[in-house]
Amino acid sequence: MTDRPKVHVGKVVGAARASVPVKDVFDALSQIVDATRECVHIHEVESTKRARIQAYEATEVARIKAAESVLKDYFTQAFAERRNLYEEMFVRLDRALEEGNGEVLHVVVRGIVDIAKSSPLADIGDLSQIRAALDDPDQVWEL
Amino acid sequence: MGKGLLDLKRARDRRQEARQAYELRRAQTEEALAATNARLEALGEQQRQALIDVVVRMADFLRRHERQVRAGERLLVDGVDASMTPVPGLRGLDVDAATWISGALGSAAAGAGAGIGVTAAASSFGVASTGAAISGLSGAAAESALLAFLGGGSLASGGGGMALGGAALNIVVAGPALLVGGLVLKGQATKKVTKAREYEAEIAVAIAELDKTDALLEGVDTRATELRGLLTGLTSRAVPALELLESEPFDSLRHAARFQRAMTLVMAVRDVAAARIVDADGEVDERVGNLTIRYKPLIQETQDD
ipTM value of the model? Predict the structure, then answer.
């Protein structure tokens, strides 16, 4: 591109330097303000959500853990008691066999079968029921 | 913008870590489930053997002595199934990737918008130092005139010229674009961090549920061990009673006591072999919590009626 004299007689655009950038700066500022406001709003909303999530997690995990703990204790206790019962009953069974006592044998064997048939797992389908049962002083635990 | 990107990366990392922790924990429960299944299969096999060694043997004895035998359907423990929540968020990650990309595109568009506005305004309103409207120019002439316009006019006319115009264009375009883009990205990242936190919470709850499943499996294991012990104890007493009963030709008058003893023990073996893991009156497939115990019929016996 060569500079020819006639090229330099054009109108100088001094005003453009003042008006257009100001408008652009204003637009840009508006965008920045809007974006900042939106960002602050998002931060507030999300902070609330996170606090709610934190509460949900703490509550739900504590609830499940409590149920699990109840379940474990219940199994430990129930199966241990049953083991003791079985041991005693087998001792009596062997004594009845030795003595040839058919009546006692029958009673003892039926006792073993009755306990065997009643499973400690039968009523724990819903853990919340267990918790409710534990909270109920009138609840009778059949072992 | 860097903070937003860092937050996004952290959010993704947190999700991945949470998912890995869940997968690791779930693998442990799968192992426990497999072990419980092995125990139940062993119990099923022991039930089958006890029924054959004791109950079927007694049935054969009765048939040999012209007594009628009626045998009900016998079920053997077959195994256990656990319904576990699928790994949460695998699909969610894909969706998030899409949202992530759209977020990034969104901020890029907002940033580009500010710059395009400036150049468009200069093109529309500016006039080149030659007097021609910039919008009427094209190619290199238009670009030179535009840069000179933003620089306050050409050097010859007392303006900053193309160099300053170029700098102004960069500031006007890049400044707000980066700021707005960064803020949009930061907003997206903040949401992603919440999503990651939500995912972590879901994982924590899912892991707690797995702990509960493990506790149930332990209960099933103990129940299976209990029944195996009982079957062993009763079978080991019933077999000698049957052997004694079969040791000499059966005389119903003389051997009534032997028969009664054997029959009592045989019935006990029959009933304990039929005892369910969960519920005596349960369905064929019985449930406890999220576990389902499976049974299969014993196909072996013949019956008289």
Answer: 0.71
Q: What separation in angstroms does the CA of A5 have from each of A139, B28, B120, B298? A: 109, 87, 29, 111
What pLDDT was estimated at residue B218? Answer: 95
Question: β-strands B75-82, B286-288: how paired?
Answer: unpaired
Q: Which residues on neighbouring strands pair with residue B296, listed in sequence order?
A: B76
The CA–CA distances, whole Å, from B296 to A75, A112, B73, B75, B225 equal 26, 24, 10, 5, 19
Residues in A touching B216 (Cβ below 8 Å): 71, 121, 124
The distance of B305 to chain A (nearest Cα, Å) reads 27
What's the gap between Cα A129 and its chain centre?
18
Distance (Å) from the C-alpha of residue A57 to the closest C-alpha of chain B? 5
pTM strictly above 0.90: no
Read off the amino acid at residue A40.
V
Range B226-231 average pLDDT: 97
Measure CB to CB from residue B122 to each of A10, A14, A20 and give the nearest one: A20
Q: Determine, for residues A50 and B226 on separate chains, whether the beta-carbon distance falls below 8 Å.
A: no
Where does B66-160 have alpha helices with state H? 90-125, 139-150
pLDDT, greater one: A108 or B63: A108
Smallest CA-to-CA distance from B204 within B92, B85, B96, B99 is with B85
Average pLDDT over residues B145-168: 53
**Rounded Cα–Cα distance for residues A141 and A130 (Å):** 11
C-alpha A121/C-alpha B222 separation (Å) is: 10
Quick check: A131 and A70 in contact, CB under 8 A? yes
If one counts every other C-beta atom within 10 angstroms of the C-beta of residue A38, the result is 15
Q: Compare B162 and A37 and report the one with higher pLDDT.
A: A37
Higher pLDDT, B193 or B151: B193
Q: Are B285 and B278 in contact (CB under 8 A)?
A: no
Q: Which two tokens stand for residue B261?
A: 């003893």
CA dihedral B258, B245, B274, A78 (to 10 degrees): 50
Nearest-by-CA chain A residue for B122 = A20
Q: Which two tokens stand for residue B251?
A: 């005389």
